[in-house]
Each structure stands twice: as structure tokens, then as C-alpha cells.
Amino acid sequence: MTEAGKTWAHHEVGKKLSNWGRWGDDDEIGTLNLVTPEKVAAAALLARTGKRIDLGMAFDKNGPQDGGFRINPVHTMTWTPLDTAGLPDGMISADDMIVMGLQCATQWDSLAHVGYDGYFYNGVPSTAVRPGIGATKNSFATANDHLISRGVLLDIPRLKGVDVLPDSYEITSADLNEAEAAQGVTVQPGDVLCLRTGWYKYFLDGDKSKFGSGPEAGPGLEALEWFRDRDIAALAMDNWAFERYPTVVEGSVIPVHQVAIRDIGLTIGEMFNFEDLAVDCAQDGVYEYLFTGTGLKISYSVGSPVTPIAIK
Amino acid sequence: MTEAGKTWAHHEVGKKLSNWGRWGDDDEIGTLNLVTPEKVAAAALLARTGKRIDLGMAFDKNGPQDGGFRINPVHTMTWTPLDTAGLPDGMISADDMIVMGLQCATQWDSLAHVGYDGYFYNGVPSTAVRPGIGATKNSFATANDHLISRGVLLDIPRLKGVDVLPDSYEITSADLNEAEAAQGVTVQPGDVLCLRTGWYKYFLDGDKSKFGSGPEAGPGLEALEWFRDRDIAALAMDNWAFERYPTVVEGSVIPVHQVAIRDIGLTIGEMFNFEDLAVDCAQDGVYEYLFTGTGLKISYSVGSPVTPIAIK
Amino acid sequence: MTEAGKTWAHHEVGKKLSNWGRWGDDDEIGTLNLVTPEKVAAAALLARTGKRIDLGMAFDKNGPQDGGFRINPVHTMTWTPLDTAGLPDGMISADDMIVMGLQCATQWDSLAHVGYDGYFYNGVPSTAVRPGIGATKNSFATANDHLISRGVLLDIPRLKGVDVLPDSYEITSADLNEAEAAQGVTVQPGDVLCLRTGWYKYFLDGDKSKFGSGPEAGPGLEALEWFRDRDIAALAMDNWAFERYPTVVEGSVIPVHQVAIRDIGLTIGEMFNFEDLAVDCAQDGVYEYLFTGTGLKISYSVGSPVTPIAIK
Amino acid sequence: MTEAGKTWAHHEVGKKLSNWGRWGDDDEIGTLNLVTPEKVAAAALLARTGKRIDLGMAFDKNGPQDGGFRINPVHTMTWTPLDTAGLPDGMISADDMIVMGLQCATQWDSLAHVGYDGYFYNGVPSTAVRPGIGATKNSFATANDHLISRGVLLDIPRLKGVDVLPDSYEITSADLNEAEAAQGVTVQPGDVLCLRTGWYKYFLDGDKSKFGSGPEAGPGLEALEWFRDRDIAALAMDNWAFERYPTVVEGSVIPVHQVAIRDIGLTIGEMFNFEDLAVDCAQDGVYEYLFTGTGLKISYSVGSPVTPIAIK
């Protein structure tokens, strides 16, 4: 519970933007409900040339984790051609396995990932995340098949004429409106908004002081109303922290996560690679595409690794 | 190496159907090259109503593995709301991780999964699968973004008027042709063929004597030529063994795997759930759809878990 | 919490046998306190010939787990000689890793493993086991170095003239006294009591219907007072269930665990292999030995895998 | 294979010190054969007061690994009291699991860990380490029960009057002889030699630039003859690199490992904590003790985590 008698700015924002009950009391997927069949069919038409652009980070030991709280994927071979020597017909085969944090690289947070005051999205009590089972409500397994929709890239560093936004830069609704105007695209209900900060460059450069710790650019509380007004289905970022970090809400660490996930019911993505996409969009001037970002239907999960694809 | 002086029927078939060199000497994805941008764009148009049908098995401890060679997914919580008690703003959060065989449930085999006589697809030597690294060639990471195409379901048990094909039933090219005719659909180059045996029913029934061991229905060597002639991009099955099991090729265990993956360069899928899809297709008479079946871009992997979706 | 108004037989026993506070309010290791330095020094003298007898189950995929709640150890190579080819001085090397349930094979339960009514041993509240951290009190890490002491085998099937005790046989204090008399040995304070049921034979036979499920022989509530009176430091069993299973305490599953661990503060071991030891003791008539059974000092763990050794 | 025509200093040393065949052609444990039953019985007498001194590093995420090649232990709860709410008799329980590199913290290297020119100890070919199985010869599982013997600490920094030896300091046979003289102890056949460099201090200080990378003090090729002459059973070090690092043998990385493990058949240990032991020995002047350092009997393993104990 929050400190007695204290009013938190983000909780006030949360109350105002709440989607609780909007899709029924049993709803577990929030704004992904906006990805209706009609939305999917319309999004599919955006695959005009069929060009695929990969938005995912490779899953391997060179990921951004430092070996503490979350681990980078550990991929091991459980069988190799060396193990099949001597089969009569010369058969060779290989098998492998993985150990990974579900939040270790490009990933979605489910609506059981973050909340406050004892509740997750739609009044799900904190105890619904059971230590020995996982998220018995708001699991990513329920949400997974809704992550195909229209994708729209808003490229804020391009708008600002920089490669990467400044440290701790807060992306505002004004920025979002200006980017729409500059790019000639409009964010619509049910879209998966891909919001570029340029931060992925630091990952590509191997700079762990910038990607994985330290100040980052991202949306603040102010932009949440814009996301809610536009009724986006999901928001994917190309940084580690998702939101502007550190926050200006004193005593809080990730207030934007809290309101986005718990109150708005917004599925959020982190560590997406928008570098190739940004170049492509700048070249053809088309900032919309068919976005396929389904992950894995892992029962009771609070998130999922994903290798998303933009198809133009 | 194979036994000296012995001629193997499947190796002969492999020679005849080989795609080695067809897409260049450095090609690592085989028939997935047939999923051209044009193919993707055309496939997208099949998402007519935007209806989504999930083709994946849930990833959890109730999977089909028996705890020996491959393990079912082990999903554990690494952080829960219980661990965040006392944060000033009442924040709660949860994180999780997974340990899983990449071939444990619904999955794709990469072109480094099976071969014979010291080689994988396109002349990649067996030593390219390095025990400590994985598949340095023919990895699934290279193939992943091509697994979006036109999907076509051929429902063989429906053709035969049964719920599930008989044990060890071999699906033939005649069956495939008849199913096309009966269903009014034609398999085309670049398609992801979804071939139903009905076997998934045994998994749903929890019958491990039928799903995971014992005789299974599937294609034999004879059908491989049909797959090659039609130039399908990938073949997904709803059983465990993929191919008719046990095989009639004495001294061999999985000869169809060998030829399909190594010689044709065909990406194959196992343990797909076609039950809902089959009902839907029977109802509307439409056996084609936009198939999205990208998995995870795991570096050097010889396969990937996947939660595929059919969109009609 | 227990059902209101109901009195449970094992809770009454627990109250009577409680060791809470005996070694101070902050004590986390219970009866292991009885393994004093003097006890260790005296135990060492039992290593008369230096003969080693291995009491552990091999840690591998052929363990007793069935792939559900707990998994058998998954051991994979992360590096092999194949990966070092080409080093100038011809160096080859290999590395490996493991994934395992800490309770999957021969193991100790720490005093944070089982309790009731919201408390573990010595008044540690259930919340001291934090989902994201583990046992912040009563961890095995604290207990580990005390698991070297005098070991005594009581061979109950031998006493009864059978290979294996009958299903659900309850080992009583009378049995324990008779075994002492028959074997010419006396259990003393601080001993690690190794209590044989013969059940390990079923594991060696690969009979999972007998080892891992189904009725088992073991101590019941009645024997707990004997263990408490004799002040044993730890109790190791050669079966899966530890206690007589199923219990006669209706509505309870493992009441002996509860009282032993929570009230007496007794460290208990499961799935020990006493087969070789039993043969050896029958031959030389010596049922006491230096017991070394330290496991791994895993921070915050509620148990540990162990490969114990008896030295005579 | 080594470079043609080149003579390597360490291979020459290896030839001279070789123990191949000494304990038979099928021997898999090398110098651990020197831990005879008589040796164990004599060692047990060194447990004079029964005082235990823990020599192990805690297994947890704060270990020395950096998340690349080897991972620190990942310990997760698979069941907690939160998951047992509602059982009639109020039972609570907890279970846990671990993922760990077997070489991640305090550990033994088996005789299948390092070799050269295609062979491990006693002529075992490199192919005996099978990627999908592990060490089919020279596994740690075979060696484990021999790791109880007389332990002797030689405290080289104390001899030199420093806290920690200088970077890349090479411990010589002269140092070993002088330490024996100064400490009044003699290393004997079958001993587990615990050789202190003081390096563990850097781990305790959290200085990863000194522990886990960078130059380290340790024995060089010269000292190997001393180890062989004294017929020690095992050699445990308190640093990361085991040997003096970097080596002066150009073109080689870990030549001392190679000769010790492959030619001498010496089981070696790394990352032991000798800090408390060193203080204790300095206080009572007794540098010998009962050493118990059995790890886990993991089938086909090339090493084992261990929490060793010195008992004086």
C-alpha cells in the first residue's frame, strides 16, 4: 500500500485514464481488445509489397542483462551430430534448449507485470500472481494472439534532428502530434505504436552504461493521456527503461509503467529494434505497416520474449 | 556415415528431390526462399475478416514430454508482488523466467536439425553445429522472419471420414490431391502446408501412449515428391513424430525428416494444434489463410518454440 | 490457517515435542545444534578403516521425477573439445551446467521447507520465504556445515526379515528399539539417523509406481517422540515420501514432515541409498560411521541436493 | 592438434610428470587414488576439536560470473507458502530449483575438463566427452567420493608478509618448501593441498577487475614437479584462474591446467575461500585438518560445485 495520507501524481492520472470495466469485469487483455478482427483485416492490407523488417533483438548471451536480477538467454545444445555417430543410415541430428528471463530482451509486459496498491489491471488482486504458478489472471498467454495489428512508427529523434534523444528526455504529446504531422501519419485506435528514442543505438554499440542503467529518454505521465485518447492497443519502445528515466515523480521508480499497465490496461514492449525500420520509413515516407508481434503462449506468464516483424 | 555398400531408399529420394544450390551455395533457409515479398503481400489479402485461430500448444509443465531427453517448459516466478511490499508508492511487480527444450512443444525444426552422411542442407558439414555454440549455419535465427505466408490446411481425417487417422497410416500424394479436390483449394509455391492427422486429439486427451510414443500417422517417402513439386515453403504437422511412424525403411528411424530437411531444405513444424482450425474451415469452406508463425530469433538455434496463428 | 475449531493430532504432537527457543530465538538450524564440535571430533574416530560407502543417487535425467512439479536434473555441455579445435597448443576443454530441482533426488529439506499455521521452525513467519528471494530465515545455507556427524543405520527390513517393508508400513518406536538391540547400536544425541525401509530397491528397479507415487513405508507420528527423546540431529530416509504414506491423519498429507521440521526443528533427508551400506553393516556388524552429508551452500535455499558418504 | 614442428614447454613437462597407466589403463581418477582408505582414516584423526571452517563461496547471483560464458547460479522458488493457502491442516511448504554452471563458483575440475593433443588424462580421447551426454570417461561422478582426505594449507602471502600476492606472481617450489618450513607442516601423499594466494579478498571486495579477469598469482609450470613429487591428491586454489596468469608460455592460455589435469591426473579446485582458515591456522599454528570436499555425483559431469569444509 502507498504511504498513508500521501497523494501520488501518477495515481491521480491513473484514476482519470482508467479502462477498468470498459471491456467487462473479467477482461484480462485491456487495450488489446481494440485489435478487433476488422482492425486485423485492415492492417493486413498494409502489407503492400511484403517487405519484412525484423524488429527483434537476438536472444543470446550477448544481451543487455548483466547477470544479476535477469539473465541473458543461455542456449545449450542437448544433442549434436557427434552424438549420433554410428546410426546405420548415417542420420545426424541436433537439439537444443534455453534458459531465459521472459523479460531479458525484446519483450512484452503482460497486464500482470506491474500495478500498485495491491491491484493489477481491472481489479485483479496482487495475490492472483501466485509464486508457484504465475499469473492466474492477466497472463500474457491470454493476450498473445492479439499482437497482430497496424503498426505505426513515430520517430522522435528524426523529428528533433538527432540520432538519439538526450538523456532523460521526456517525450510529450506535443512531440507525438508533431511527429504525426511531419511524417504524414495518424495514430488510430487499435494500433501498435512503435515509439523511437534512438536508444537501441547504445545497445548496438555495446554501451551498457547507456542501455541497461542510467538516464533514458521516454514518455512521461503527460503523454499517457495521449495514448489513452488515441486508444492505442500497445506501445513498443526501443529502450530499456520504457519510460523517461529517472522519473520526476519523487519516491516512485516507474510511474508510467504503473499507470499504463494497471490503469489503462496497455500492453507495453521494450527493447525493440527500430533502427532498420526508421531508415526504411524515412526512405519511402510510409510510417504504417502490418505489425506481427505474437510471442509465446506460456501459461501464467507475466511477459513474453518476442521477435516482432514489420511488413510493408 | 552410412553402412558401406548399402543403398538407402530415402537417400535415393533425397538425391532426386535435392534443392542444394538452388538458391546459391550460401543459402541457409531452403524452401523458405519461396516466401517472397510478393508471396507475403498476397497472403496478407487472405486475412479477410481478421478472425484469429490459435494453432499453438500452451508452453507449460503439462506438455507432452516425459522428463527424459527433452523437458517440458519449467516456468518460474523470479519476482512477485510479495517481494515489492513497502515501496513508497505501493508499486507491485512480477517477473518470470523459463527453461525449455526448443523442441518441447509446438515448434519449428531448422535446417540444422537433421541430416545424414555428415551433411545438413546445402552441404553444411555436421561440424557446423558446434556443441558449445550451436548451429553456425542453417540456424533458425536466419529463417525466422520468413514464417509468414499463405497457410493451407489439408484435413486428411476429414477426407477419410474419421476423427483421427489410423496408427501408422501413411499419407500419400493421392490423399493430398484428393483433399485438395474435396476442399476446393490448391497448394501453391511458398505456402505453409498445415497437414492434419487428427493426432492432436490424443494430446488433448492426455494420452501419452499415443502422443509421444507409439505408432503415428504422417507422410512417408512417397509424399515428399509432392511437397517438392508443389514447392511448399514449410510443412506443419499436428502430431509428435511428424512422419508416419514407425517407418517402413528398415534400419532408419526418421527418413522423411532426413530428406525433407537435408535435401529439400524444407522447414518442418510439429505438434501444431489444427483442431479449431479444422472446425472453422469445415464450416466456412475456406482452407486458406494468412499464416503467421514466427518464433524466436535465438542465435545459433536448431529450432524454435512457436505460437502460430491463422488469420482468415 | 487450519480449519476453525478443529484439533489436529499432529499439531498436538508438535506442541509436545517443540524445540522452539531451545537454542535461542534466532536459531535457524534446530537439532543440528546437537552436532557440536565435540560430536564431530568423536564421529571422526568412527572412520576406522577409511572405507567409503556412497549414499547418493546419481543426479541425471533418469531420476525419479516425472516431469511435472519437480524436474530431474538436466545436465548440458556448454563447451566441448569440438569447440576448442585450432588452439595453437592443442588445448581441449569442456564445461557444463545443470538445471535441477533442489529436491529432485538425494536431498535435505531445510527448516524453511514445511510448516503449518503460518509458521516455520522457531516462529519464522511464512512470509520469510520470499518468492523472489527464497528463505530469508531457516535457509539450508545456514545449516550446511553441520551435516557431518556420527551416522547410525537402523535397518528395519532386516529386523523384519524382508527385503522391503510392506506398503504403508508405519515404523514405530518399538521397531527402532528392537533394531538397536538386534544391531547392537544405540542412537545418541547429535546423530544422523539413517533409517532404512528398503524402498530404494524400487528406484533401482525403475518402478515409478512404487517410488514417486503410491503407498510407502516410513515413520508415523508415534515415532516422532522417539526421535525427539534421542535428540537426533537429522533423519535420512531411503524412500520418496519420507514418512508412512498415506498418513492416517485424515485431511493431512504429510503430518510427520510438519512436526519434524517445524516443531522439532529436525533436518530431514530423502531418497538416500542405503543398499550398499546395509550389506556392509550386516557383514561387519558395525552400524555406526562417520557421516559426511554436506550439500551446497545455496543462498536462501529451502533444501539442497547432496551426495552423502558413510566412512567406516 | 598442436602446430606442426613446434615443441611446447608444457607438453615436455607433461611427458616427464605423466601418471598415465600408473593406476591401470582404465583408471579415471588419477591422483585421487592416493586417497586410500588408510589415508582417510588417518585424516579423520585430524578432526581433533571438531571445529568446522567453511571454505565455500555462496552459490547465488552475486557470484563472480559476468553473464557471458558461465552464469552465476539462478535460484528460483517453485513453490512457497503463498501457494499452499487453504490446505485443511494449515500446511505450508516451499520448493526451489537452480540453474548453474558447474564451474561457476567454488568447484572441482574433473579429469575430463582440460587436455591437449586430442587426449584427456590416461589416454581418454577427446571424443569421450560427448556433447549430448557429457564425460563418458573421467567424469567427476567417479571421483566425488575420494574428496575426503588430509587437508594442508600453505599460506604464501603470509610467508611473504603481504595480504595478497602481487599480480601474476608465480608460486614456485621454493615458496612451497619455505612455507612448509615456516608453518611446520609437511605435505604428504594423498593430501588435498590448499594453496593460498589471498586472491579471494578481491572477490569479497567485489572487485571484478581483479577476480574474474586480469593478472592473477598462482603456480606455474615449475611447481608442477613439486606437486607430482609430493604426490598430492588434489590442489585447491583461492583464485579464479588457478594458475599464474597470464602465463609465460607464449601461445598457450592455461598450460598448468593442461599438465596438472591431463598428465598428472590431478583434480584441481578453484575459488575456494581460505580467508577464515588462514586466520585460524595462524592462530593455532596447525596447518593440517580433515578436509571434506565432496560435491555432487552428477552423471557425466566435467566438474562439480562444492562447499568444502575444513575440520580441525
From TrEMBL, chains A, B, C, D:
Pfam family, one: Cyclase
Domain of life of the organism encoding this protein: Bacteria
Gene3D superfamilies cross-referenced by the UniProt entry: Putative cyclase
Name by which UniProt lists this protein: Kynurenine formamidase
